[in-house]
Design brief:
It is a single chain. With about 140 residues, the chain is mainly alpha-helical. The protein has one domain (about 1-140). It is about 70% helix and about 0% strand. Helix 5 (about 75-85) packs antiparallel against helix 6 and helix 6 runs antiparallel to helix 8. The longest helix is centred in the last third of the chain and has 19 residues, at about 90-110. The chain is globular.
Length: about 140
């Protein structure tokens, strides 16, 4: 089903960021990856496909607010993916991270996983996709 959704969006001319968002949300919904892993995987697949899939395992401990409900795992995965794509430009990664946090806080009112899930139960799949899409936007603009 995910493949069909992705294929139909691509054939309709959906932009690159939406493609990354759909991929991340599909990976999350598959149950095989959590939020941080799904964002990192989708960005890696679309910006650095030559890297081994094992890099996604670096995000294993960051789902559900690092297991404690603190910072949203999708943000963590996005931050990791920015470092992966912009390896030589730490300043740019820091600026994009700030931009992502500002956008996220405006969208969801908090960057705390526990707070977001408490207010909007079941939001994680959609949120994961939106963070991946926003990250793709930032990286393409950057």
């Amino acid at each position: 089903m995910f493949w069909m959704k992705q294929k139909s969006c691509a054939s309709e001319g959906t932009d690159f960021s939406e493609k990354v968002a759909i991929e991340a949300e599909g990976l999350y919904r598959s149950g095989k990856l959590h939020c941080a892993e799904a964002v990192l995987a989708a960005v890696k697949n679309n910006f650095k496909p030559e890297l081994p899939d094992d890099v996604v395992k670096l995000a294993a401990g960051f789902g559900s607010g690092s297991g404690s409900g603190c910072i949203c795992g999708a943000i963590t995965g996005a931050t990791m993916s920015m470092g992966l794509v912009l390896q030589e430009d730490r300043r740019k990664v820091m600026q994009m991270t700030r931009d992502l946090h500002k956008w996220f806080h405006q969208e969801y009112g908090s960057t705390c996983c526990r707070v977001i899930k408490g207010k909007q139960h079941g939001i994680c799949p959609e949120l994961t996709g939106k963070v991946a899409g926003k990250t793709a936007d930032l990286l393409r603009q950057g």
